Structure formats: structure tokens, C-alpha cells
């Protein structure tokens, strides 16, 4: 199997775990708990760096190869590519909102939680669609040359996509991320 596909599927397991954790955290906030700003900030950083700058660009390359092998995949691939753009935009919006969140400002707080809920729902559904509609068929469709090109991109991917913007570690997310073994260690 392509190492690129293995990496994407390992990412999906990690993202799914994070999404479920964030949904629980969001529920507690909706019940009245304070927003854990460190957790939220780490989640947005991880989505911005790992999902928007590494995972989705790699998927876009996989989609190009799959489309070349089966043009009938055009509609679902266009939908998923649009969702990548939407998720990138939504990550930026979450970051902007997070910077403005103040626990005593309930309007901003509620808007942030609403936007977070929409983001988590879209991301979860997006991952399921990719797994069910594309990745199950990827091995059968991709040629040896496709696999070589995708794995070469994986090897040259920007390491900065895996780092926090402030240079600190992912303290809150680390136990969750380490529970899912990535294919590529960076
Ligand atoms: Fe994905």
C-alpha cells in the first residue's frame, strides 16, 4: 500500500479521536464550564498546521491521481476539494474568534462554541466520506507510478506543518495524539 494512503488513514484515526474529544469538551462548555483556551488553541493550531497545510494538500494529490484513473469520481472529488477549502476557511475563523473569546463575554463565547460545533460536524462527516467513497478503492486504482509520486511528496512535506505556531508542544493534545500511532514520525 502507498505510504501516503497509510499516513492519511493514520491521520483520520487521530483526527477522529480529537474530534470526539473536542465534542465532549464543547458539551461541557455548553453546560456552563469555562472554555479551556489552551485546549481550543492547540486544537486550532493542529488543524491549521496538520490538516490544512499537510493532510489536505496530500489528499488533493491523491485525488488528482484517483481522478486520472477513474474520471467517474469527479463529482465526489470536487465536493471533497471544496470541503478542504471550507475547512481551511473555518479554521481561520475559529482562530480569529478564539482570539476574541473572553469568558465573561457570553455572546462571543456562544458564537465560538456554535462555530466549533459546525466545524467538528463537517470535519467528521468529511473524513467518513473520504474513507467510504475513496480510500477503500485507492489501492486498486493507484498505479505503481502514482504510489511513487505520492510517497515522494510525503517525504518532502513541510515539517513546520506539525509544529505549534508559538513553538510550544501540544500539551493538551499530546496524550490523544500518542494514542494513535502515526505512520510518519516527525
Ligand atoms: Fe482526510
TrEMBL record:
InterPro entries, per database record: Hemerythrin-like
Domain of life (superkingdom): Bacteria
Residue ranges annotated for the Hemerythrin-like domain, each copy included: 4-137
Gene3D superfamilies to which the protein is assigned, alphabetical: nmb1532 protein domain like
Pfam family, one: Hemerythrin
Record protein name field: Hemerythrin domain-containing protein
Organism in which the protein naturally occurs: Natronospira bacteriovora
Amino acid at each position: 500500500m502507498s505510504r501516503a494512503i497509510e499516513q492519511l488513514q493514520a491521520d483520520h484515526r487521530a483526527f477522529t479521536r480529537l474530534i470526539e474529544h473536542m465534542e465532549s469538551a464543547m458539551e461541557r462548555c455548553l453546560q456552563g464550564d469555562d472554555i479551556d483556551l489552551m485546549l481550543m488553541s492547540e486544537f486550532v493550531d493542529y488543524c491549521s498546521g496538520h490538516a490544512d497545510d499537510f493532510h489536505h494538500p496530500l489528499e488533493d494529490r491523491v485525488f488528482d491521481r484517483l481522478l486520472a484513473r477513474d474520471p467517474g469520481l469527479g463529482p465526489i472529488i470536487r465536493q471533497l476539494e471544496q470541503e478542504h477549502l471550507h475547512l481551511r476557511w473555518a479554521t481561520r475563523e475559529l482562530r480569529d474568534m478564539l482570539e476574541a473569546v473572553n469568558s465573561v463575554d457570553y455572546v462571543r463565547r456562544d458564537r465560538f462554541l456554535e462555530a466549533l460545533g459546525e466545524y467538528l460536524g463537517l470535519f467528521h462527516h468529511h473524513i467518513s466520506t473520504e474513507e467510504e467513497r475513496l480510500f477503500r478503492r485507492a489501492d486498486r486504482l493507484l498505479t505503481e507510478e502514482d504510489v511513487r509520486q505520492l510517497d515522494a511528496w510525503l517525504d518532502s512535506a513541510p515539517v513546520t506543518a506539525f509544529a505549534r505556531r508559538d513553538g510550544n508542544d501540544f500539551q493538551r493534545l499530546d496524550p490523544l495524539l500518542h494514542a494513535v500511532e502515526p505512520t510518519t514520525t516527525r
